[in-house]
Amino acid sequence: MTVHMIRLCVGCDTIEDLVEWHGTGNRPWALHTRMTPKRVDELLDGGSIYRIFKGMILCRQRLLEIRTVGEGVTSHCEILLDPEIIRVVPTPRRAFQGWRYLDPKDAPADLSDSGGEEIPDELARQLREAGVW
User: What Pfam families does the annotation carry (predicted)?
Assistant: First the structure.
């Protein structure tokens, strides 16, 4: 059974900021986190990481590989992500620390699947807050 991961995107206000920070190219992105997920097999069975920008889930990236690096107190988790960013229907989400699992039934739909046009992130946020989208 597939499960997703959700995480705050700290230090980036927009998807464009995230792309600029990581750079362009077709090589996988590396995401580092302190704790290694226990449900690795479910995450790698078609799972994605959904990113929250300023209280809104705006995009996702497919999970490619999850591995623990180091041993003991210096160990950490390295998650390799597909460089393709898939925009999703902007969905409000409260802040939290670290990452959480996200059930596929609770994951926002991809914008390309929802029939929605691509609109600026800030406009999408305002429409969601007003309850019209």
Answer: DUF1489
* Tokens 């959904």 sit on residue: 50
Residue 45 CB neighbours (<10 A): 12
DSSP per residue over 14-83, as a string? SHHHHHHHH-SSSSPEEEEESSPPS-HHHHTTT-EEEEEETTEEEEEEEEEEEEEESSGGG-EEEEEE-S
Task: Tokens for 66, please give them.
Answer: 């999850």
Interval 17-76: pLDDT, tens: 888 887 767 888 898 988 899 999 999 999 999 999 988 899 999 999 999 998 888 889
**Whole-angstrom distance, CA of residue 53 vs CA of residue 36:** 23
Could you tell me how many residues make up the chain? Answer: 133
Helix (H) or strand (E) holding 91: strand 86-92
Comparing CA positions, the residue from 33, 12, 23, 47 lying closest to residue 98 is: 33
- Return the CA Rg of the chain: 15
Are the C-beta atoms of residues 36 and 66 closer than 8 Å to each other? yes
Amino acid at 35: M
Contact status, residue 16 vs residue 87, Cβ threshold 8 Å: no
